[in-house]
Amino acid sequence: MSEASRPSVLFVCVHNAGRSQMAAGFLTHLAGDRVEVRSAGSLPADQVNPAAVEAMAEVGIDITTATPKVLTTEAVRESGFVITMGCGDACPVFPGKTYLDWQLDDPAGQGVEAVRPIRDEIRRRVEALISEITDAPA
What is the pTM of this model? Predict the structure, then answer.
């Protein structure tokens, strides 16, 4: 698959420290180089949520090197799919993009026990997204 025809996905949440990082980790792990993956936050935190890092490690995905990034209009412009997770109106809207809003509990301040079900729901949604965007005809 050429670089130009490869789907690109941007995951956005407020702090880019939990949900969007877990989603990006799953998409990168499950789709490999078939999908270009980005994540960002409208108000990025200083670090990725340690409970999210631990929950992902439990399923064999290492997001320890991930760092929260600020949401930019360029990131949205360069992505074909923009998946928001509670960032509200902070996400810029461009014509021709596919926007999805995933209603997910915020793992901020939660222990790993509370993060596991969020992680598992994100995995289900990412798996469905992969089949939707990689099996669709160009």
Answer: 0.91
